[in-house]
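User:
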Amino acid sequence: MSEATAHLGAFDPVKIGIVSISDRASTGVYEDKGLPALQDWLTRALHNPISFEPRLIPDEKERISATLIELVDAGCSLVLTTGGTGPALRDVTPEATLAVADKEMPGFGEQMRQISLKFVPTAILSRQVAVIRGQSLIINLPGQPKSIAETLEGLKDAEGKAVVHGIFAAVPYCVDLIGGPYMETRSEVCQAFRPKTAIRTAR
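Assistant: Predicted structure:
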């Protein structure tokens, strides 16, 4: 076993569902950029070995809800969606997500809009929600890869210090609280926050 493999083995494995929701991308009209953006950011941000469950589906409420249930039932501790959160008639991701929720977690959507408002005034049109279903955290993210990274990672100053925390800083502790794996982030990408009593000692 290599040193890198041995080091990786010290971290809990995590299964993450990533869902890109787009009528046109799902039918091949244009290339989907949501799934690669999610996978790239999560791979950079987490020490944990990740198994991804990717899905590319159209903007159909029942299909979205069914996909979220499928991923939760498959053991995904975290499910991230991208797309379908605006005010357009076909944007139904929040409704489909709330339809499968046991609990709503409104702070995630509030913080995403606060981050995006630093860049564009139209961020108030975003309707992202986050919910818990069983032992899974489901979060709707924006549709653009740049916005995905900004909302997950937050805003940093020239020295790399967090000015506005991204939502992912709170994800690992939330997953802890619902009985999921212990997720460990790379501080240069995103520093996860936990109360001192919840921090796992070095192994």
